[in-house]
């Protein structure tokens, strides 16, 4: 948790030094996150499954994570708490006995 706070503070510091908070409304942070997720996807486009550049993967993944953290921070969300809540919900949707080794969506289990 300490590390996560340090990380978020580094991102906020970078942003504030450039006076970019004015551009970071919820909609644009969500759009930017999706654009970065698409840049990540592009690394795999027209290639075999594991044929991607690991350095570019690190960069695009970092971009996605930074926008996700900025969006969570904007709404004072606790990353640890929202992820654990979602894991609990997913565990209810995907009981181990029905979903183990099975990639079927929960509504078709
Ligand atoms: Mg990028």
TrEMBL record:
Keywords: Hydrolase. Signal peptide: none annotated. Pfam families: MazG-like. GO terms for molecular function: nucleoside triphosphate diphosphatase activity. InterPro entries: dCTP_Pyrophosphatase, DCTPP. The keyword Chloroplast does not apply. GO terms for biological process: nucleoside triphosphate catabolic process. This is Nucleotide pyrophosphohydrolase.
